Every structure is written in structure tokens, then in C-alpha cells.
Amino acid sequence: MILKTQATPLRIRGYSNTSHIVTWLSPEAGRLTTVVKGACRPKSAFLGQYDLFYTCELLYYARERDGLHIARECTPLEFRASLRYDWRAMLCAAYTCDVLDHVAENSPPGGSLYALLQVMLDRLANEGAGQPLLLWFEARLLSVLGLAPDLAGCPKCHDGTNGELRFAVADGRLICTHCNTGDRRSAGVTVSRSAVASLRDAGTRPVPAAQTFAAFSDHELLALRRFLGIFMRYHLDMPFESRGIAWGLWTPSV
């Protein structure tokens, strides 16, 4: 069966002296992997037709046995050339693709992750790298995956507005200080009320808003970054080398 879809490469690796294996993210098929035969030959029809951060129209032979499909044709639709020379934006784009390559493996097909990837790559290509953009991406990713932290307030006293808040990472919810009994499950990380409000807003927006994290100081942005890093490490169970590299543009890795 020959299928056609829009797709963006998440990962490209060698298959032989002349061929590539490309992992793509598409709106219809989700995460899919193709062999691009003869991609490295001097007269290959695939030369310059795909690369990391491109959006392409992909035509491929679908195989049901091993899930390794065969690319037939590929045409670039978006090049995002600025990501070739803006190395800061490129590092953030590489982190974006690395995360989605991991989480999309066991996620059902659908356009939400693909739409998130397109928005993120377009913003990085047009505006460059920025801490608020990365924070929006991580908050939105968790929301799309159905893993967003429960920021609705303490479930014991139903009060999320007064006093210092802490977030119980294992439970995925907020708990007020006076309700924190000190047991391991209720122990967590401190979260400010302004951070809670901004994360709620970011997670519900399909595109980033400039004002979401605009009023935050560098110290507050670092606290947000650490909170999301702890939460994602616990609930996504993935290596975070690329995250440390991307966030290391502003602060040392945590």
C-alpha cells in the first residue's frame, strides 16, 4: 500500500553506505520509520529533499510486518533555513525532536503532537531560542499527553490561594504546607502561586503567548525549569541529555 502524508524528521541515522533510516512524525500515522534507499548516492532523487527540522510531503510503501516502511518520494514544504546557522535555536529544536521521538513511540496517531512540533519549530526558526518558549513547549507537551500536573489546588483543604504551596511529584498534585504531613508521598517541591497560574495558562494554549512568562525574573524562570524537569523525569521516564544541553544556553544543567 502506498500512503502519502506530511511529516517532519525526528531522527536520521545511517542504514548502509548509501541509505538512511529516518524516523518521522506525521499527523495521520504518528511516529513512523522509513528506509530511504540510495539517499547518499550522488544522483539520488532524495538529495536535499529531507533533513532535520524540515516539513515534507512523504510518499511511502507501508509494510505491516516489521513497521519499517520504504520511502518512495519526498518533497520539502518548509526548510526553516535559519535553524542551520542559529545554533541556539538549533539546540532547542534538537531537544524538541528528541523528546517527541521518545514520547510519540507509544502514543496513538493523531495531529496534536505533530501540531506542537510544527509550532515549536516555526517559532524557533522565526524568533530564535528563549526560555519562555521552552517552558511553554514542556507545559503544552504534558497537557497533550494527558500528563499535565494537577494545579487545581490542595485536594485536602480545597485552598490553592493562601500560604506556600508544594507539589507532590509522585501524586502529580499540589498540597498546601499545613496539609503536608511530612510523609514521602506528600513531600515535594515548592511552587509559587504565580508559577502555578502561568503553567495552567501555558498548558492550555495551542500556541505560545508572549505574556505568559514575561514578568518572571531569571531566578523564577530557573525555578520553573527545575520544577518541570523533576516532573517530566518522574512521569516520562526518559533520558534528558538534550534537555540539559538546551537549557544550558541560559543556566547550568540541573
Give a written overview of the molecule.
By secondary structure, this protein is α+β, with helices and mostly antiparallel strands. The chain has a domain at 130-254: de novo design (two linked rop proteins). The protein is built from six helices and eight strands. It has helices at 87-103, 111-127, 131-144, 193-204, 218-236, 241-247, and strands spanning 2-14, 20-26, 30-36, 55-61, 68-78, 165-168, 173-176, 189-191. The chain has a five-stranded mixed beta barrel. A three-stranded antiparallel beta sheet has the order 7-6-8.
Average pLDDT taken over every residue: 86
Structural class: alpha+beta
The H/E string reads: EEEEEHHHEEEHHH
**Tell me about the biggest sheet?**
5 strands, mixed, barrel
CATH topology description of the domain at 130-254? de novo design (two linked rop proteins)
Rg, nearest Å: 20 Å
Query: What strand order characterises the main sheet?
Result: 1-2-3-5-4
CATH architecture descriptor of the domain at 130-254 = Up-down Bundle
Please give the structural blueprint:
Elements lengths: L1 E13 L5 E7 L3 E7 L18 E7 L6 E11 L8 H17 L7 H17 L3 H14 L20 E4 L4 E4 L12 E3 L1 H12 L13 H19 L4 H7 L7
Parallel strand pairs: 3-5
Antiparallel strand pairs: 1-2, 1-4, 2-3, 4-5, 6-7, 6-8
Helix pairs in contact: 1-2, 1-6, 2-3, 3-4, 3-5
